[in-house]
Amino acid sequence: MYEIVTKRELALHTNLFEFSAKEVAAKTRPGQFVILRVHEEGERIPLTIAGVNIEKGTITVVCHEVGKTTKKLGSLKEGDNILDLLGPLGKPAEIKRFGTVLCVGGGVMVAPLHFQAEAFHEAGNKVIGVVGARTEGHLIFEDEMREVCDELYVATDDGTKGHKGLDFLEDLLEERKIDRVIVTGPIVTMRTVSDFTRPHGIRTVVNLIPIMVDGMGMCGACRVTVGGRTMFACVDGPDFDGHQVDFEELMARMKMFTAQEKLAYVFHEEGGRSL
Amino acid sequence: MNKPKPKIKKEAVPMPKQDPKERIHNFNEVALGYTEEQVVAEAERCLQCAKAPCVEGCPVEIDIPSFIQLVRERRFAEAMRKVKEKNSLPAVCGRVCPQEAQCQANCTMGKVGDPISVGRLERFLADWEREHGYEVPRKSASTGKRVAIVGAGPAGLTAAADLAKLGHEVVIFEALHKPGGVLIYGIPEFRLPKKIVEAEAEYIEKLGVTIKMNAMVGKLYTIKELLEQYDAVFIGTGAGLPRFMRIPGENLSGVYSANEFLIRVNLMKAYDFPRFDTPIIVGEKVAVIGGGNTAMDSARWSLRLGAKEVRIVYRRSRKEMPTRAEEVENAEEEGVVFEFLTNPRKFIGNARGWVKAMECIRMRLGEPDASGRRRPIPIEGSESTMDVDTVIMAIGRTPNPIIQQTTEGLQVTKWGTIVTDENGKTSIQGVYAGGDIVTGQATVISAMGAGKKAAKAIHQYLMKSE
What we know:
The structure holds two protein chains of two kinds.
Chain A: E1 2-11, E2 14-20, H1 22-27, E3 33-37, E4 45-48, E5 51-53, E6 58-64, H2 68-74, E7 81-82, E8 84-89, E9 100-106, H3 110-122, E10 126-133, H4 142-148, E11 151-156, E12 163-164, H5 168-175, E13 180-184, H6 187-197, E14 204-207, E15 223-226, E16 229-232, H7 233-236, E17 239-241, H8 247-254, H9 258-269
Parallel strand pairs in A: 9-10, 9-13, 10-11, 11-12, 13-14
Antiparallel strand pairs in A: 1-2, 1-7, 2-6, 3-4, 3-8, 5-6, 14-17, 15-16
Helix pairs in contact in A: 3-4
Chain B: H1 20-23, H2 36-44, H3 53-56, H4 64-72, H5 76-84, H6 90-96, H7 118-132, E1 146-150, H8 154-165, E2 169-173, H9 182-185, H10 194-206, E3 210-212, H11 223-229, E4 232-235, E5 241-242, E6 255-257, H12 258-267, E7 285-289, H13 293-304, E8 309-313, H14 325-334, E9 337-339, E10 342-349, E11 355-368, E12 374-378, E13 384-387, E14 390-393, E15 397-398, H15 402-406, E16 431-433, H16 436-439, H17 444-464
Parallel strand pairs in B: 1-2, 1-4, 2-3, 4-16, 6-14, 7-8, 7-14, 8-9
Antiparallel strand pairs in B: 5-15, 10-11, 11-12, 11-13
Helix pairs in contact in B: 2-4, 4-5, 5-7, 6-7, 8-17, 12-13, 13-14
């Protein structure tokens, strides 16, 4: 059992959780993820680690309620326990002094991006941050990112705060010398940014969390085509070269269980009584 | 005057099974198990050979004639004790061991009729004991030594049980959320009910073994770190990585590895979706690629999950199939169709990226290859297309690589298996390994045999270093 030590609402249906998991915290590096299972009938879901507190023995994740499991997790309170938490999984992000690092994050994935941005900052990089969300109300971790970034830009899909969309990045990439780009967030965001950086030849690292079951290389549900080769995001990644990833295939695979996910959600809302 | 000896029956007492038409609509066990009368009748057939060739065929060397004699006398508790002297997972072995290639292959009765159904007798005893309450064997006095076991599969559970009985403190580190390894994620409910695996794991805990879940060695701790806290380590991490063919269209939606398919259905109980959250999608036309037990399991699950046509597509012929004869028979009874000497070349998707067809080529058999089986050779120009909406790749599993990648000084083969001597000793002092991680993908019982051997070697090592 893993206790929820802290729960904080960051935006509508978006919560930060700090779980008691001392051994996991001690081994975690930015870029890695955990797989958790809330209850006995629950599924295993991957969540990218957004930070650790080694003294307290906790790890932090941020979760947006999109389906049955994330909704169930969102209904838990401080002091409640979840059944299983496995990690740290995946290879850590490559953190070293590159020069200027552009860190672009969208939605809840801004939280784990902050974990990386902080590490890049500490490694002596100039860090330019971009935090994005659908609307102003969905923005998270803006202040935290400002603390570890030398410059910070805000973007929303609807333009309610900061830039409208990510098109402004094209100018930024023209004007500035950037040595490395990190993108976390929705697949469309990762694809868009990778398309922007491709003509500039800037190494662009995307953090992929496709559908997974075990998270340790056994099921192959998370396979992605990278540079024409099949890779498992859970053990070969989660970081890959954004210029090599077959995003179209990835998007199709992400939709594989959409109908079932909706059914599970409805079943859950109905209290499991009927179908 | 002596009574004339009753004539020994040549035919084995048949195993009661669920009707194929019924069983493809439920998830319950297919083989129902012997009754007391049936088990005694089958035991009566044993010739009690002095040389006991059956024991030679058993990887864990169960004293088979002795336990059969006790069954004849209806002394079931004692018979079970006899089995458990050597085998800590009898309910599992009685169900999934390839007895026809082991103890039963050597049976003297097999020369004149059916061999004694040793597996069925073993299964009866294990089920009898589960109903009548477990007997926890006496353990040796504590040695004060600590052993870490990596992986709660058949090799690890067996090694743990033997070491605990010898008085060592044993902790198993398991990465998944349930113990059993392939027994829990790989073998289907209808062949090995999960409550039986749970009961066997509980029995091992009753021996004093601690099983720590969600603990992935190689990520959470290294082998070196374990050696700081434990006197010896046994690695039984198995062969859990799926193989793919690396042909076009293999990443289309609807194409699963057998591992993904079986983990979803067995471990995560997707057959009971949406009560359990994990989904599985099985279409109407399923093709399972491969000819092993995993292929049979995937095909038979597919039928139970609503598929209308299930085909096993295998590149060699029936004779070369590496599966138990009983599983092929069960699959055929249930309506699985076999396409031999056929191999997929590519998968074709629809507009949504979902598999809709499979291009296949006919094969012929050439000279025997390294495995001793005749090598399949494609017949060019024989391509044809098969409509499918679900494909399950069951073409084998490779060793889990994480420990090998994170343990300096651990000698590994080019196939990724760990190098050991015949007792499971690796290139690092105090570190032993056994099961599929050493041999590559094999059977439950051979992994258990390796766990047993390694436990013996670990015990000797620990007592010598006293």
